[in-house]
Design goal:
The complex is a heterodimer of chains A (270) and B (271).
Chain A (H helix, E strand, L loop, with lengths): L1 H40 L5 H13 L2 H23 L8 H39 L2 H7 L4 H38 L5 H9 L4 H27 L4 H34 L5
Helix pairs in contact in A: 1-6, 2-6, 3-4, 3-6, 4-6, 4-7, 4-8, 4-9, 6-7, 6-8, 8-9
Chain B lengths: L11 E9 L3 E10 L4 E6 L5 H8 L7 E6 L2 E2 L5 H8 L2 E4 L11 H5 L1 H5 L5 H14 L15 H13 L5 E5 L7 H18 L2 E5 L3 H9 E6 L2 E6 L9 E7 L2 E7 H5 L4 H7 L1
Parallel strand pairs in B: 3-8, 3-11, 6-7, 7-8
Antiparallel strand pairs in B: 1-2, 1-4, 4-5, 9-10, 11-12
Helix pairs in contact in B: 5-6, 6-7, 7-8
The chains are: A mainly alpha (270), B alpha/beta (271).
């Protein structure tokens, strides 16, 4: 009986410890985001760091985003044609590819690809800086790591992910067009006319606001998990994994809520 | 909160400082560091030596007690207010903590770059002067990954000295180095103390290096640095020892008092 009581008490203590840890992590994340955003709108700003991060996040991710967008558009064209044929609606493939890419697949897939490539490297880089005391050195030398490291990454995410998404959307629609012509026997002109008539204001608002939010999420989560790294090089590995998992889940959850909100604010009237 | 420091006031003072995480780290630590003097903090692993340096810099906050740095109580200060205190202090981290993405020159000039009033030419001149001081003048454009362990520590010393701090903190600067390289680091510590009159705290568990710093003094003769060592520790002044044991002060006094102490723990530590 006493043994069972000890066991229950032990489990309760561990649960309470983990729960407190989780609440503390959320609190730290909110504080980090607040301080990061505040640092973006107040001086001093580090232009060189901002440009370096934009280069690393934007230019560095271009190839994977191009390939992802292109193949997604192509496969979307093939799949939608198979379904639309059942209703004799094959000519609407362009419209379907365009709306799907701009409203949903372009922003989400781009953000997930960039999270895998850049969010993880942010966590690893900052985590390594924590375990080698470089973050402490930065504070001692008079720099605020939030201003110097976090704010440029957040800004780069919020600016470059929308740009990458536009590129991904364009190539996705272009890829869908290639399949429509060479595999579905639709005319090039007809495909693009269908694409052009598909977009409304809501699509553009959704297509640009989502990637901006996703860019913020992937950068802030990468920085947060990196700066909370403990336990040496093993801890850096754990932070990297945690950052990708947490940012991916947050992006998908945020996608739902942003979509719901924008559908209320900007109802679709086609 | 911050008052002008009095001339005779200790440059750093700890008053009954307590700190605990999941176990007590420091329990009632009190000591003072006088202007221009050196305090060598000894102790085993986990005794709280590095914690003392982190508390001085405001990287950690004490649970209780007071820490005063150059007339300023650092405990209640926030990150922005701590910046002014930190500008008076140079810190050499255990492994150097050089920024991997910056060259040696950029590392040494890091704090100067933060000062927007300084011209790039003035920064470069000061950086080259500091690299010359630590004997690494040709390494200006090298990256930290190209340096040996001893060279990284010397660059860390140059970086800490670049903004002419009045207080220097060294966290195990010779750990993991061979005896000859360790001597180059201790010689630098002595140079900074004797030529610039900088107050310093040296945290170490390397007894040989601790006594090297206590015994050696340096002066300039015909433009050359001359190092001398005193074998009789009873005449040494200006360098004191502080020994920590499980977060408490086990001993505080001169090198001579340390060597002649009858405390069994100290005897075992020194043996």
């Amino acid at each position: 009986m006493r043994k069972t009581r000890y066991l229950v008490a032990g489990v309760a203590r561990r649960l309470s410890y983990r729960l407190k840890g989780s609440v503390l992590a959320v609190q730290d994340y909110v504080v980090l985001c607040g301080r990061g955003l505040h640092a973006l709108v107040t001086p001093p700003r580090y232009g060189r760091e901002i440009l370096a991060q934009m280069d690393s996040l934007g230019v560095g991710s271009l190839s994977i985003v191009v390939l992802t967008g292109m193949f997604t558009g192509m496969v979307l064209s093939l799949q939608s044609a198979a379904s639309l044929d059942a209703f004799g609606a094959r000519p609407y493939v362009g419209r379907l590819v365009c709306i799907s890419m701009v409203r949903e697949l372009g922003p989400v897939l781009t953000a997930l690809m960039v999270t895998g490539r850049v969010g993880s490297s942010m966590a690893a880089e900052l985590g390594s800086m924590v375990v080698t005391q470089q973050i402490d050195a930065m504070r001692v030398l008079g720099s605020d790591p939030i201003r110097k490291l976090v704010a440029p990454r957040i800004l780069a995410g919020m600016v470059m992910v929308p740009i990458l998404t536009i590129i991904s959307d364009t190539l996705g629609i272009f890829g869908g067009g290639l399949i429509s012509i060479f595999s579905l026997q639709l005319s090039w002109m007809y495909y693009w006319r269908s694409v052009g008539s598909a977009l409304v204001l809501n699509d553009l608002v959704m297509g640009l606001s989502k990637p901006m939010a996703f860019g913020f999420i992937l950068a802030s989560v990468g920085c947060h998990t990196g700066l909370r790294t403990t336990g040496g090089t093993q801890g850096v590995g754990a932070s990297t994994t945690r950052s990708v998992v947490a940012a991916s889940v947050m992006i998908l959850a945020a996608d739902f809520f942003i979509t719901k909100l924008l559908l209320i604010l900007f109802p679709v009237n086609r | 909160m911050s008052e002008p420091p009095l001339r005779d006031e200790p440059v750093i003072s700890f008053r009954d400082v307590h700190l605990a995480f999941d176990r007590p780290i420091l329990s009632g630590v009190s000591f003072e560091l006088n202007r221009g003097s050196t305090k060598i903090v000894l102790g085993g692993s986990g005794s709280g030596k590095t914690t003392i340096l982190r508390l001085i810099l405001g990287l950690l906050k004490p649970d209780a007690g007071g820490i005063r740095v150059d007339g300023t109580e650092v405990g209640p200060l926030d990150e922005e207010e701590l910046r002014d205190v930190r500008l008076k202090i140079g810190m050499v981290f255990q492994e150097g903590a050089l920024f991997d993405s910056l060259s040696v020159g950029e590392n040494v000039g890091y704090r100067l770059e933060e000062d927007e009033e300084l011209e790039p030419e003035a920064i470069e001149e000061r950086v080259r002067e500091m690299l010359g001081f630590v004997g690494l003048a040709p390494f200006y454009d090298r990256m930290p990954s190209e340096l040996s362990g001893g060279q990284r520590r010397r660059v860390a010393v140059a970086r800490a000295l670049a903004a002419r701090p009045r207080i220097m903190l060294y966290d195990e600067p010779t750990t993991g180095l061979d005896p000859i390289t360790a001597t180059t680091i201790t010689d630098l510590i002595v140079k900074v103390r004797d030529l610039d009159g900088v107050s310093s705290i040296l945290v170490t568990h390397q007894l040989r290096d601790a006594f090297n710093v206590a015994r050696t003094f340096v002066y300039r003769k015909n433009g050359e640095f001359v190092h001398n060592a005193i074998d009789d520790v009873s005449v040494l002044a200006g360098t004191e020892f502080l020994m920590l044991r499980e977060g408490q002060v086990q001993f505080e006094g001169s090198a001579h008092e340390l060597q002649t102490s009858s405390d069994p723990y100290i005897r075992e530590f020194l043996s």
